[in-house]
Sequence to fold (200 residues):
Amino acid sequence: MKTIYKLMASSLLALISVSAQANLISNGSFESNPQANGSWNNYANLIGWTGGAHGIELRNNVAGAAFDGLNYVELDTTVNSSMSQNVATNAGETYTLSFAYSPRAGVSAASNGIAFSWNGVQVAALTGNGVGSGNVWQIYSYTVTATGVTSKVAFAAYGLSDGVGGSLDAVNMNAVPEPTTVALFALGLFGLAFLRRRKQ
Fold:
């Protein structure tokens, strides 16, 4: 009986540890750079992010509200641009990378494109027709595998290079739980079910 309780406790601690993982992306919601309400600005770089040749446009409540916090990014600054971040990883380890994307209101799909790349390889290319009067956010999630001790996460505007484009927010990256952790949690649940049955 004590063994089952110990297994359950271990499983619970493992689950808490997994769910409480910190975001591996630095400044994933772009809140580390102050931007006044109702304003926007082009920056060469943001905290944690290296901008492309034409910088990064940071917005606060302009042409729509952020998905998380106050700020969000547009990468078609004056023309199509990009941004990237090198993240510490473990070779062979799998990660889940997610982010919020919205087409810009009143802008066609031809100009709203944002592409996501992992270590120089394009993983996804998103676009859409902007409708309504603000951002319509949707979360996208991808599984990626590291090949070294650092991995490059990059986003780039594509399509018409006209100074208006898609929006990006809430970039989040976490390691996928080890199979042993998942198995341990499952064992704990099995133990709990076993105890309930015995009580009945």
Summary: Helices lie at 2-19, 179-199.
